[in-house]
Structure formats: C-alpha cells, structure tokens
Amino acid sequence: MNCVMDRRGIVHVKDDESFHKPLLPIYKCKKELVQAAKENQFLIVTGDTGSGKTTQLPQYLYKAGFGKNGMIGVTQPRRVATVSVAQRVAEEMNCTLGDTVGYQIRFDDCTSEKTVIKYMTDGCLLRNTLTDPDLMKYSAIVLDEAHERSLSTDILFGLLKKQFQLRNCKKRKYPLKVIVMSATLEIDKLSAFFGYCPVVTIPGKVFPIKERFFNLIGPRDKESTAYITETVKITLQTHLNEPAGDILVFLTGQSEIEKACHLLFKKAESIDYRHDVYDSSVEGLLILPLYGSMPTEQQKRIFLPPPAGIRKCVLSTNIAATSVTIDGIKCVVDSGFVKQLNYNPRAGLDVLEIVPISKSEAVQRAGRAGRTAPGKCCRIYSEEFWNKCMPDHMIPEIKRTSLVSVILTLKCLEIHDVIRFPYLDHPEEKFILEALLKLYQCGAIDRTGCVTKLGHFIIEFPLSPNVACAVIKATSFGCEDLLLPVAAMLSVEQVFIQYGDSLIQKEAERSHEEFHELAGGCNDFATLLYIFEQCKSSLNPSSWCKNHGIHWRALKSALNVEKQLKEITNRLRENKDFPIERFDGPKNEFLRRCLCAGYFSNVARRTMGRTFRTMDGHGSVVHIHPSSALFGKEAQLEWILFHSVLVTSKIFVRTVCPIRYDWVKDLLPKLHDIDAYELSNVAREEVTNERIMKRESKDETGQCNDRIQEAIN
Ligand code: CDP
Ligand code: MG
C-alpha cells in the first residue's frame, strides 16, 4: 500500500491490488459505446452494477477525443460515490486527482483548468446551470445512476431535454452529448422520454444467490427500531457460521450504523476463534462503516482487501446497493429498511423517515453478494413482511419531497411554467404549488411568480432557502459571524456522537447537556454556535471533539463550510442592491431574530401541556424532541421556532429555540396572504412580452427592493 497526494496536498491511500482485476463486462462493448455516443445526441447505457459503467465509460469517451471541446461531466446522486469514483479513475489514469480527473461536491471543488473528466453530484451540475445555462463548458454530460431517480437528476433530465436541445443548435459548434446510465430499470420509459434514443446494454453475469428469511421482523415491527439489534445478531451469526468471504450489511443511517458497529465490535471481542467459528481460516473481523457524509480519506478503506485471515464486514446505508461496488462480498445481511426524505402532509414539511425498502431494492441489495461467485443473502424480516410491507418499486424522489429549491432554480433559469416542464414523472400539482407558496412566503418570488432580488441572493447559497434567508438577514446587519457557524453546523452530518454502549453514551450525553447549559440553557441553535466556537478556538480541535462526545469530522466540515459561506456573503455585500440595516435589539436576541427571517414558517405556539401547534396552514400538533435543550421545559415556553421535523409515533421538532410573538407577527400573515388559485396561474403562466418588459423595467427593480426590505424587516 502506498499514498498519493492530490494537488491540494491532501493524501489519499493508493491500493496496489486494485489494478490486478479481471476485465470488467463493459470492456466488450467499448467500440459499440464510443460509436453510439458519436452518432447520437442522446444515448442510454444500461448494465448491472459493477459492470464498469461509472469508472470506464468516461475514460472511453476521453480516449475517443470527446474531451477536446469541453469537459466530460459525470453526475452521481451521492457525495461519497462521487469522490471515491473520481479517485479511482484518477488512479487508473495515473494522474493526480484534480488534474485531468477531478470532482466537485457541495463545498468541495477539486478541479482545475486541466480537468477533463469531472465527476460531480447531480445537485452541483444543477447549480452550475445557473451560471452556465447552456453548459458551454461541457462537451458531454453523463447522468449516472439514473435508476435512483434522485430529484436533481430528474430535473436535469427535463432541462437537458428542453433547454439544451433548443439552444444546442444555435450556440454550440458541437452539440452537447447526453448519456444516461442506469441499472436495468425503466429503460423503455427513459428512451421514450429522450425521443426514443438508442440503448446500449452491457451483458452481465450474475451468480445464483441463496436467499433466506430469518423472520425476526414482521409487519407489526414496521415502526420499531428492533431491526438494528436483530441485524447485528444475524451478522454475528453469519460471521461465525459462514465460510471465509466478506459481509455487507444494509442499515439506514449514520448514527444507527455507528451504534451497530459498536454493538458488533463488543460482541465480536469475546469470540474464541479456536472453537467458535465454522471456518478455521477465519481469524478475525474487520468492522467498517459506510455512509454518505463520510470523509474522503476514510472511504478508501472500504475498498481495500482485508488482511489475510480477517473477514471484512461493511455496515452501510443504501449507498452500497448501487452507487459503490465493494469487491469480495460473499454474504449480504439486509435489515429491510431505508432512510428516506419524504414530504409529510401531516407536518407540511420534508421529514426523514425510516421505511421498508421496495422489493426491487431488496433484490438489488441481495445481488451484491453474487458478483464474482455464488453468494448468500440473509433477510432479517419475514416473508409476510416482504408481501405486506414492501412495495414493488420505490417512488421517485420528485414525487415525495419538497420542491422548493428546484422550483427556485427553474425560475432562476427563466423557466416560469413549472407545471408544464417536461418531468419524467410529473409531481403532484399540489406539491408544486406548495413550493411556490414557500418561495413567495420567504420573498424569493413575487406575486407574479418572478424571482425577486432576494431570490437571486438566496440561490447564491448552497443552503435551503430558510437558512439562506437567515444568513442574508444577519449579513444585512453586518453580524453574519454569529449566523454562519450555525448555518454551517446545520448543513453537516450529525454533530453529537451516539454510542450504543450505555456507559460511554451517558458520559457523552452529560457533556452534551453541559453544552446546552453553557450556551444559555434554552436554545439549540446557540448550542451549535457554542460548540463551533469552542472547537475552533481550542488548541487541538480533534481531541477536543473526542473528549466532548462530538464528531470531529462533522466539525471539520463545518469549519470548512463556514469559510465558504463567508466568501459568498463577502461577495454579495459588494452588490449595490444588497440590503444594509441596523440591529437595535439586545444582543441575546440577535441570533433568534435572524432565524425568524428565514424560519417564520417553522413557528409553533404552545397549546396544552407539552404540545405545540404550528402556525402554517397545516396547524399540526408537534412535540419537542428529547435531544433538545428545551425538552422538559415546555411549560415555560409559549412560542418556538424549529429547524427540522422527525416523525415517529408523534411529530417531533428538532433544533429548537424560544421566540417572541413580536418578532414574527408581521411575517405570519404572509403565510396566508396568497391563495392556491393565484399560485396555480403563476405556475402555469407563459412569459408574455408584457411581463418581460415589466421585469426589465426600473420600476420592478424598485419593487423588488421593497420586497427585500419587506421580507427582511
Ligand atoms: O458503474 P458500475 O456499477 O457499472 O461499475 P463501476 O462503479 O464502474 O465499478 C467497476 C469496478 O471498479 C468494480 O469492480 C468496483 O469494485 C471497482 N471500483 C473500485 O475498486 N473502487 C472504486 N472507488 C470504484 C469502483
Ligand atoms: Mg455506477
């Protein structure tokens, strides 16, 4: 094993073994693929996961000269996959990461003028269209992992079909090539969407997989967390009873995976390898977590073969189902659950929910064990669970999450008729209207559906409009230093470490409670700010985190994110239209009053006992989550503001602070001052000449400024 350094001085581990691999299935289709890409503007490539699409096809295009007239941009729905694939391809091409091969994810751009193959998240490409609407920097766009049907990929489908087809002919010397890559799902539908474009199928070989239901989870356990311990139990059993070969375990999210790793580690410690294991060549267990927000340096460990005699066991989120392929997996343990962002009509908000996976996802998960030899899949749930609780297919994200950010992006791209946009799957009209309503409420669009100046400022931030509004408000007061750390802390992974083990967990919890107290005792946002500042000013931030039950890597990214947000606010302040105000209230109200500017739709008032009622049209009854500093103090509160919602048996609000009615009373009427009928016209409206003129006139600029003031005041 040796190391490589990228152009920014970051060291990556290089794996020598990886180059001694049998040829990937895609190799046989190389000529056909290059030819088809040359002859067609739209092309679909399909093949089983692990056949080499993501790592090889961009290299084929590069070698065939596609990179001469612009970059080859490859999108991925997930950050981890984006970075690990770029690293891998840079190694295969023997170049430094960030030179010929680079990547870009939110808050981390590792590309240069030399970059030709650029891996990026789909969200990044969507953002890039705001500054480069014709994608003139690219000669080809590869939309990878299309079967995942992530929101940004779905929007890119429509954009590439609509915009670029139209504009291609006019502005470009060479038309933009669009290649959509997908595991074998819904190919006909995709091809029809892109004008019945050709499809190249990479033939693959899948080995048989023995599947077994362990009946530990049934339909009644749909909402319990029992599956975590049951999954750990089966994983240990598999380790003890199966012949050598690595194990891949599917769970749902970071904190749960860490808990499970901890549990498994505790159990594995007491194994006596002379007597307990079926296969005497197995002499140890290497437990590795894998989830979306994992730092780059750690990801590489997942792909390295384990030392001789040691069985590798990777506990992963759904990411290992299709986005990344780990070689050497002989056995899959499937918990049957996945964490999904769903729009919850009961709460009127996007909430993270743990739900049963679909049958087709379960088949995909099992398939990971049969790539190079026959394999096994242990399903911890029962056949009844499979029949009754698991849908056949997953619902695409566009039909189940909030559309606020993407609708604002479309509006900024001057696509005003957001109802008749070419969606591969049309979201429900009421979701589009809800998004417009939210944008109107926060002042990002006006009554006619046009983006306001504030809206243009909001879109500059890779943050949700709520947080962006609060940041803009603080910047207008010249005190963004207090809000940027909070915004940064809200955009990174979970900050508080949760250990499965009760003793350490208690200690960590004590430390977390202490932070709440030190930050004033009654404001979760202030706690985040306090932690950020303590960590930043400590001499050894990583050990400070370790000693206080805080994830160092989360804080490390927060420090980096804060720096980048600061660059954006500095830039925006140069803009002559950027609002400047004076803050007159007491200092301890500053943070909360800025938050009110962005989060006034997330406000609730106490009703009875410990419950609160939200003030948006939904009027849902919510409870304060036990992790909050305000938990148990409900009786002393009247109005609260919250960042996010978690739905289990009840609706919980997380990251909460108390506010005063005065601060929101002028904003709350905005939650009700436009009706659905008016909005549906706005959503459907074609841009008439009159409107274009109106938008361009000075009058309108004046109005926009008023609106900014109105929204910010
Ligand atoms: O995209 P597709 O699923 O068709 O395959 P791929 O991601 O291009 O993977 C092809 C091969 O490269 C697999 O055998 C992976 O294990 C390997 N690979 C790797 O070793 N390290 C990575 N970071 C990515 C892929
Ligand atoms: Mg792939």
From TrEMBL:
Any Pfam family the entry gives: Helicase_C
E.C. code: 3.6.4.13
Protein family membership: Belongs to the DEAD box helicase family. DEAH subfamily.
Protein name: RNA helicase
InterPro entries, per database record: DEAD-box_helicase_OB_fold, DEAD/DEAH_box_helicase_dom, DNA/RNA_helicase_DEAH_CS, Helicase-assoc_dom, Helicase_ATP-bd, Helicase_C-like, P-loop_NTPase
Organism listed in the record: Hymenochirus boettgeri
Lineage, uppermost ranks: Eukaryota, Metazoa, Chordata, Craniata, Vertebrata
Start and end residues of each Helicase ATP-binding domain: 34-203
SMART domains from the UniProt entry: DEXDc, HA2, HELICc
Entry keyword annotation includes Nucleotide-binding: yes
Catalytic activity: ATP + H2O = ADP + phosphate + H(+)
